[in-house]
What does this fold into?
Amino acid sequence: MSDQVTESGVELTNIQKAAILLISLGESDAAEVLRYLGQKEVQQLGLTMSNLDNIPQSAVESVMADFMEAISDQTSIGINNDHYIKEMLSQALGNDRAQTLVDRILMTTNTSGLESLKWMDSRQVAEIIRYEHPQIQAVVIAYLDPDQAAHVLQRFDENVRLEIMMRITSLDQIQPSALQELNDILESQFSGASSQSASLGGLKTTANIMNYFDSNIEQELMEKIREVDEALSDQISEMMFVFDNLIDVEDRGIQVILREINTDTLVVALKGAETGLQDKIFKNMSKRAAELLRDDLEAKGPVRVSEVEDAQKEILNVARRLSDEGEIVLGGGGEEMM
It folds into this structure.
């Protein structure tokens, strides 16, 4: 659904409409829906639900045109949302996982400054750490999920990106006192402290972040790292999960990935793939689908390298998401992707 302005004049985004739908469904049905979403989607919906307030019935009816009978007696969306979110997430995720997620969504005192950064968009995080020492920037970036870390780093100029990535590579154990000090320098509304040392950074973290950069930024940054330390660059490259590594994914995993990729993207991506990987893709499709894909590949004219790279990145992002959700197992550089 696209963004819309309702008859009441309320402008709703897609995520707000999804949140209204879930609240209108009721806790049990909403919990069933959430079981099929990834952590980031649950986080985004939870945040949006917690921010909904005084949504008029006319706006609900505009969003829920096909569900009007089911929600006709509900007019108080926005009341007691905190309790609703806790109950719904507990049903969907279990009490332990839900409590951590609820604490983050509702910004309770159990959420540390570092954890709170994971709930912000990349622009906000970049602005918070922009004038901090590079070592602090490196710790923060290493603490974030790889995809968020990549988006934050893309908001810095190339020299700053290089320094931060080099520092991340050399990070290892962070002591509680250092994490406490870092929490103290973040915005006053985010509080809390870690009581255990944490493993942050290192080659694997660097490689994982690299995987989420746009192709041009990834290539540029790898070249600069190579200029500084060629051996380090080789180590990072070996640990990165690249498109050709899909050949090591088990057949079931390939089938799961293919269900979420459109044919046009797949055709462009395979234009730059090794024969062995192409054969693996064909093997995990129906005979008819494989024949059609081969025909499309043969009929496809020359494609720009940048287009091939973008298509491969799109497929890799799907694969990583499925891996994060536990649907498939990826192996890069002889290791499972974390």
In short: The longest strand covers residues 4-5. Strands lie at 4-5, 11-12, 173-174, 198-199, 331-332, 335-336. The chain has a mean pLDDT of 74.
